[in-house]
Amino acid sequence: MSISVAALGKIMWVLGIVAWYVIRYPFERRAKRVRVVSSQRSHVENFGLASALLGLAVIPGCYVASGIPEVADHPAHLWAVVVGATIFAIALWVFRRTHKELGRNWSITLEIRDKHELVSGGPYAFVRHPMYTSFMLMGLGQAFLLSNWVGALAGLLGFSILFFLRVDKEERMMVEIFGSQYRDYMARTKRLVPYLY
Hints:
The protein is mostly helical. It has six helices and two strands.
C-alpha cells in the first residue's frame, strides 16, 4: 500500500506539532515554579495567542483530521513536502534553542520573572525574537506541507497577528526593565530575520 503525497504532508505536519509540544512541555512545567514579578497580559495579547493557536494548530488540525474545506485543496507535490518538512525541522531547532537560552526567563505571555536576565546568546545573538522566528518558520513549513489553501496559510496568518499585536509591547517592556542595555542590544540585532528585519 503506497501513501499519497498529500497524506505524507499531513503526517509530517502532525509529527512536527507533536515534536513542538514535546519541546515546550518541560519548559512550561519549569516556568510555573518561577515567581512572576510583573505581567502585562491583556485581552489583546490573549487574542494574539489565540490567533496563533488557531492558525498553527486548530485550523490545520481540523483540516488534517477531516479534509474540510475540501474546496480549498490543491495538488500536492513531493518537492513541497520535502521543503516544508525541512523548514519545519529548522523551526523546531530554533524553537528548542530559544527555550534553552531563555531557561527560567521563559514565559508564554509578557511576564517578567524573579531574577529575570537579558538573554543575548544563542539565537538571540542574531535576532531579538527567535521564538517568533520559529513560529514564522512553522507557518511557512505548514504552507508547504498541507495541500489545502486554508490549512496551509492559516499558520502564517495566525503568526502575523500574534507578532504585530505583541512585538512592540514586548520591546517597550524590555526597555523599561533593562534600559540602555536593551537599547544597545536592539541596535546590534534585527527583530525576526537575521541581517534583514
